[in-house]
Every structure is written in structure tokens, then in C-alpha cells.
């Protein structure tokens, strides 16, 4: 496995350091701005050093859209956290065609949430309803459409600022609703998964909740994610899930 990383923001920096500790230090990083010290920086998949087998996207929807199709078409597997980008049907189609043309795979990291295994299994037997609720402290919604409907700095009680389908959530909140996309992709799909987004001044971290019902029975899952230092929007677990996905791809026995 020879890796490259797209994006060196909060998650990218964590992932690069973790891969180096694992003995899988990336051969290069694809960036828009300045590169982290000590790593060759390039601007495109075409400029990557030869022999890269996997590209790890930590750059958000724009990074996946800009570099995902080129990597897949070149036969390079892509591991991504930008699951919400797949709510754009055109991009989803381009990625899947590129993967087919290049004989490569797009791996979706589980990100800041869990219980996707139970949802996937439940979907195989038929799901009736899946609801996702994302709750973050007000500053976790800074720079999102929540700012148009709420005064985030003055909030004294929890406030719902979005209710709709997972597709609408993923497209409108590219930096905050990848988890809604993960739930949708594992379960009932983008249009039939309900999503609700809440700014909560009492939330001790990024809280993600899934409620699902189907032929399997029902479950409720909740996680309280500690934010990454440097970005209150992103949970540390999201960065950790990238390393977990790399380990899963390398393993002979997979969970
Ligand atoms: N699946 C999940 O559970 C989660 C997914 N995410 C996704 O991960 C993204 C990154 O999160 P953070 O690292 O916290 O954000 P960040 O804002 O700290 O870093 C993003 C980095 O990507 C770079 N970038 C953007 N477009 C690029 C491009 N076309 N090519 C190369 N680099 C590019 C930016 O310059 C920046 O350095 C989020 O925007 C979100 O979409 C974040 C948290 C959880
Ligand atoms: O990191 C999180 O808690 C979730 C997040 O931003 C996303 O789903 O895009």
C-alpha cells in the first residue's frame, strides 16, 4: 500500500501523523495552499509520484469532486470522508464510472458515527424508517446555513435549524452532514432517511443519534464525539475512522 492524502486541514494533519506512526507515511499530499513540512506537495493526481495505490481524501466535498474521479480512473483506490458529496447524483455517477473504468474502489470511511453495520444488515431484511439527529454546540455550526436562521452566539436553548431528507442535509451542510450521508448510504438511501440538525448550547460535544426500525426490530444509537483540536465542527472519531479503514483494507480478516 502506497498512500497519498488529499487535504492537510484538521483531519488531514491528524491522519498524516497517524499514518506515519503506522509506518505508512504518505508519499505526497495533494493541497490547494501550503503543504505540511516534510511532505512533497502536489496539485493533482497526475502529479503524484509513481506507484501510489490509495488516495485518502480528507479535504471535504470539493477535494473529492476535484481529485476522486481522476484517481479512480487511474486505478488508484480512494478512501473518503466526504460521503455527503455522493448526494450529488452527477458526482456519484462520475465516481462510479471512473471506478469501473480504472478497476478501482471508492471506500467510504465510517466517519464520526457508528452503528452502520447494524443499519446495513437491517437494510438487507427491509427497513421501515431511519432518522438521524445531529446535535452540536452552536460554534460547531459556524459557517453553515444555521447562521441564516439562528444567532449562534446568543443561543440559550437547543434549536432545530434543519429538518428534511438526508440528501438535502448533505448538500446544504457539506462540512457538517457527512454523517447523515453515512446513515443514508448504509440504510434507506438519501431520500428516505430523515435528518434533523440541532444547535445546542448544552451539548458537551458533537452528538449523533440514529433511530431505526425494520424487520430486524429496532435500535437507537447515540455517540458523543470529542471535537478535533483546531476544528469544532469535526469529531476526532472521523479522523480515527480513516486510519481504521486503512487497517481494514490491509487486513486478511476484516470486521
Ligand atoms: N464523514 C464524517 O463523519 C466527517 C467528514 N468530514 C469532512 O471532512 C472535511 C475536512 O474536515 P476538516 O479537516 O475538519 O476541515 P478543515 O477545514 O480543517 O480542512 C480541510 C482542508 O482541505 C483542503 N482542501 C479543500 N479543498 C481542497 C482541494 N480541492 N484540494 C486539496 N485540498 C483541499 C483545505 O485547504 C483544508 O486545508 C469536512 O469539510 C467534511 O466534509 C468532517 C467531519 C466528519
Ligand atoms: O465530525 C462530525 O461530528 C460530523 C461532521 O462534521 C459531518 O458529518 O460532516
UniProtKB/TrEMBL annotation:
GO biological process: NAD+ biosynthetic process
Catalytic activity, as annotated: L-aspartate + NAD(+) + H2O = oxaloacetate + NH4(+) + NADH + H(+); L-aspartate + NADP(+) + H2O = oxaloacetate + NH4(+) + NADPH + H(+)
Name of the top EC class for this enzyme: oxidoreductase
Boundaries of every Aspartate dehydrogenase domain copy: 156-243
Residues annotated as catalytic: 208
Gene Ontology molecular function, alphabetical: aspartate dehydrogenase [NAD(P)+] activity; NAD binding; NADP binding; oxidoreductase activity, acting on the CH-NH2 group of donors, NAD or NADP as acceptor
Binding-site residues for NAD(+), renumbered to this chain: 112, 178
Pathway(s) the chain acts in: Cofactor biosynthesis; NAD(+) biosynthesis; iminoaspartate from L-aspartate (dehydrogenase route): step 1/1
KW NAD (keyword) present: yes
One of the Pfam families matching this protein, by short name: NAD_binding_3
Keywords tagged on the record: NAD, NADP, Oxidoreductase, Pyridine nucleotide biosynthesis
Keyword NAD set for record: yes
Boundaries of every Aspartate/homoserine dehydrogenase NAD-binding domain copy: 7-108
HAMAP family given in the database record: NadX (MF_01265)
Anything else known: The iminoaspartate product is unstable in aqueous solution and can decompose to oxaloacetate and ammonia.
Function in brief: Specifically catalyzes the NAD or NADP-dependent dehydrogenation of L-aspartate to iminoaspartate.
PANTHER family listed in its UniProt record: ASPARTATE DEHYDROGENASE DOMAIN-CONTAINING PROTEIN, L-ASPARTATE DEHYDROGENASE-RELATED
Family annotation (NCBIfam families): PRK13303.1-2, PRK13303.1-3
Protein name as catalogued: L-aspartate dehydrogenase
